[in-house]
Amino acid sequence: MFTIQLTGQWMAWVALLAKPLHGRSSWRLARVILGILLAQGRRTASSWWRAAGVGDEFRSYYYFLDSIGRKATAVATVVFALVRDEIDSGGGHWLFAIDDTPTQRYGPKVQGAGIHHNPTPGPAGSKFLYGHSWVVLNRVLRHPENGTIGLPLLGRLYIRKKDVPELPRDIHWTFRTKLKLAAELIKWAGAQTVGHSERPWVVVDGAYANREFIKPAKEAGMVVVARLRRDAELYDLPRPLKPGERRGRGRPPVYGKNRLSLAKRAGQTRGWQTVAVVSTTGQVVTKTYKTFLATWHPAGGVIRVVILKEEDGSWRAYLCTDPDAGVQEVVQAVVDRWSIEQNFHDLKEVEGIEQVQLRRVWSNIGALNLNMWVHTLVELWGWNRPAEQLSDRSASPWDDADRRPSHADRRKSLQREMFNAEFRRGFDRLPIPPIIRQLFDRVVRMVA
């Protein structure tokens, strides 16, 4: 009987991830990850159990997801160490990205579910959806050939304040805003980077350009890059003392007195410059910018402001809490932030994080983080493999053969490797008839 198994490398990784879990149930982690990798169709939790051959023990696996959710931070620490040890980032500062995304749920008894803003309404045009909202931390890395790749590490569940009383009492849930959840994540990431030679960076959307996030991020040793509102209350730098002038009583001023207007700065035709950065697909692109120093109360002092002009003539402004940072570094971080949006797309469309059909809070937290860790380990597995091994588009001549391998390509390549390894184990040392080999290859291509 053929039973698909994880490869030796994956078994070693799973053994490390299972260490923070309870010894009596940690052995189930390998079967759950196997089910996630092999599940077909709708990626519900039941499809995981079916693919892994769980059988009548399925109830214990549902409760096992609860334990993973409660131990998510400890397991994420192991995943972070794997990424750090397995991938050489080539020096420089480490870059993180934080953003939030909703996952749609169905049913009135889904714990923690509520009405959330829908950032991608689709053809239906619905501005809101019923489900869960997640704040996710990503590590952003640059692949030598395939551009920018984001690796999701840890996700926190955001539950609206009005929905907290509806949770069972034994959960003991404390309401936290998305900004506080993001601050928790960045503090955790800062603790993982202790000992690194350069200060790590974190890039976020404009919703997190707030004192509630920036202050703890700076305390964690992070340099923050974020989008600025067009009406941001910026001021110039404090006036420096003249030669021989004595400073008055009190502490030196931190903020200037003259208000700065982003719209006026962006509207001036003079002063624009260009800088070359690398897009998420690995291509060199040119960006038009203006930059200046300003003081901003939410950041607690001096920031570097970078205004980028888009191709259609519009503009967007960004801040960096390190005033000495180079413009090229700031713009590159802004461009690389798109990797987390690509991760959200892959997690929903490829991994199927919206389809798990779980009701309990901790089960949902465990399922989401498991999907994210599998996503990261798949990218880690395919990091040093050649592109032609990860994606074969010979059967699709209409497709771009030079397009970089997608996450789905890597996932299917891993499945084919697992199928082939089991096929070789089944025949052992017996000679394999060519017709059987050809038939098996065709079936594997259809399945993966």
Describe the structure.
This protein is of the alpha+beta class and 448 residues long. Among the domains are: 224-240 and 254-327, no CATH class; 397-447, no CATH class. It has 14 helices and 12 strands. The protein has helices at 8-18, 28-38, 45-52, 58-70, 72-86, 178-192, 211-219, 262-267, 327-336, 338-349, 361-381, 387-390, 407-427, 434-447; strands at 95-104, 114-117, 128-143, 147-158, 201-204, 223-228, 234-235, 259-260, 273-278, 284-296, 301-309, 315-320. The strands form 2 sheets. Strands 1, 2, 3, 4, 5, 6, 9, 10, 11 and 12 form a 10-stranded mixed β-sheet that branches. Strands 7-8 form a two-stranded antiparallel ribbon. β10 and β11 (301-309) form a beta hairpin. α6 packs parallel to α7 (211-219). The chain starts with 7 loop residues before the first helix and ends with a helix.
Short description:
The protein contains 14 helices and 12 strands. The chain is an alpha+beta fold and 448 residues long.
Stretches where pLDDT falls below 50 for ≥5 residues? none
Instruction: Report the span from N to C terminus.
Output: 20 Å
Helix content: 25-40%
> Helical segment tally?
14
Task: List the helices and strands in order.
Answer: HHHHHEEEEHEHEEEHEEEEHHHHHH
Please tally the β strands and state the result.
12
What amount of the residues lies in strands?
15-25%
Shape: globular
Average of per-residue pLDDT values: 90
Structural class: alpha+beta
Characterize the largest beta sheet: strand count, sense, and whether it forms a barrel: 10 strands, mixed
Q: What radius of gyration results from the CA coordinates?
A: 25 Å
